[in-house]
Amino acid sequence: MCYHKIMLKDKIKADFKEAFKAKEPVRLSVLKMVNSEIGNAEINKRGKLIKEGKSENIEAASALNDEEVLQVVSREVKKRKDSIEAFEKAGRAELAEKEKAELAALMTYMPEQLPEEKIRELAKKAVEQSGLPAGEAGVKGEKETCPPERSIGKVMALLAPQVRGKADGALVNKIVRELLG
């Protein structure tokens, strides 16, 4: 018996059809936009492949895998969160509510988010792996002092693959800054 894992892109397309049939305007709008962004990402990937001279079987090669589709969805989630914050600051509650509904529809495609304690644990391990002393914003080397941004960058480079799509980048950055600062 052969079992195939349903690709995230295919699930989004199937859910789009389902939302259309069920006449769910918010979900339909969000999924239409996500499908469009996935298509744009595939076109960009196709362009890069052509520039690199890899034009053989271009359609299959430019199709996004689940990780790349998740990056597209993550970008859209971030846009919604930023919009919600901006609308709330401007006193536009009705627009903030619309964005919250869209965010809820998008979150169904995101992996379960890591709790803050788990992020702190992973960040501590990343600081240890980087060789940077916790509690110091700058790191003195033999020749020069490493600026705080580079210290944070070293830790984030180790930590990012472990938390990508599973944690808010701003929260991860804040935790790393606390550990190094």
Walk across the major sheet and give the strand order. Answer: 1-2
Counting DSSP E segments of at least 2 residues, the number of strands comes to 2
How many DSSP helices?
Answer: 8
Count of folded domains: 2
Helix amount, in percent? over 70%
- CATH topology descriptor of the largest domain: Hypothetical Protein Yqey, Chain: A, domain1
- Assign the CATH architecture of the largest domain: Orthogonal Bundle
Topology:
Layout lengths: L7 H14 L3 H27 L6 H5 L3 H24 L3 H15 L8 H15 L8 E2 L4 E2 L1 H16 L5 H12 L1
Antiparallel strand pairs: 1-2
Helix pairs in contact: 1-2, 2-4, 2-5, 4-5, 6-7, 6-8, 7-8
Tell me what you see in this structure.
The longest helix has 27 residues, at 25-51. This protein is globular. With 181 residues, it is mostly helical. The protein has helices at residues 8-21, 25-51, 58-62, 66-89, 93-107, 116-130, 148-163, 169-180; strands at 139-140, 145-146. A two-stranded antiparallel ribbon has the order 1-2. It folds into 2 domains: 8-107, Uncharacterised protein YqeY/AIM41, N-terminal domain (Hypothetical Protein Yqey, Chain: A, domain1); 116-180, Arc Repressor Mutant, subunit A. Helix content is 71%, strand content 2%.
